[in-house]
What we know:
Blueprint: E1 6-11, H1 18-32, E2 37-42, H2 53-60, E3 65-69, H3 73-82, E4 88-90, E5 123-128, H4 135-161, H5 188-191, E6 202-203, H6 213-217, E7 223-225, E8 231-233, H7 245-249, E9 255-256, H8 263-266, H9 280-283, H10 289-303, H11 329-339
Parallel strand pairs: 1-2, 1-3, 3-5, 4-5
Antiparallel strand pairs: 6-9, 7-8
Helix pairs in contact: 1-4
Amino acid sequence: MSRQRLTVVLSQAQGKNPTRRALEESITAALLMEPGLDVSIVPYLYDLGPEHSGRLFLESIQGDMVVLAWMYPRAAFWLLDRDGIKGHYGANQITPPAEVDEEEEGEPGPPKGIGSVDVPPRWIYCLDLRDHPNYEIYVQEVRRIAAECRQRREAQREAAAQGQPALVQLGRYLRDEEPAKPPVQFTAEQLLQPPARRWYPVIDYSRCTNCMECLDFCLFGVYSVDQLDRIFVENQDNCKRGCPACSRVCPEQAIMFPDYKTPAIAGAPVGNIGGLKIDLSKLFGGDDALAIAAQERDRELVADGRQAVGMTVGIPKRQAHKPKGPKDDLDKLMDALDNLEI
Length: 342
């Protein structure tokens, strides 16, 4: 096995904010001097269409990869997965992990989500460029990741030399059976061709339980099911710009809109209070998430010349008739506010 280099991809911010561009340039300049790295720049990940050179380049990368982007790591990872750029999730030491309830500590339970399929034996690390203004923090983290990847490959080589069986992933890529190929080569001008801005949902399959509530709720043909009867985003560009309604409906907080203003919907770590997907208006007597989602959907239906449907179509089964279950994060927060007499 040849010594593999780590591919580092920096996804530029939308627009030309001078502060963000300066951070991007500083990180790129420093990483270009690091041994064992292949460094490239592409436009904003979320906007890359299937024919864009930046997207084709990303699809051609086969080894471990670090992606630095202006979005939450969870959103960036599952955005790549949606585009067929798959791997195991590599945790970084910059973005704080999701908080864990005390009640959930101890032995971890089985994975809740249906997970991704056809995952090749490589790792993808995503770093959020909004976390720190100091470029050196990102350079140090990439160095740490590069060392971690080297150690993993060395352990795999030692295991193979000792005759230990390798892990078998669900499904296989044709490229696993072919000699390794270098990433597709593009000029800087081709890679950085400005794409049109896009808006569409991204599914976190580590949380998605395939309940199909998003499919029932969305009336714009965005969602469908694949050959394995799994929910997926089929018609990305049917989504209505600025509308996050389906994310509010999802019971597992598995649907993200990376450009949305509310962190929980944009892909922030899902955990304790920080993982709430309910707008603050609900805490002070406003509408709940389902009512807000129905209003957002109605607004887009009317804009399309269609009839508003309110709460009569595709509303999840978990309604008032559902037996009261254990308190969730919102209930606990409301109790805490009551105790403080807010």
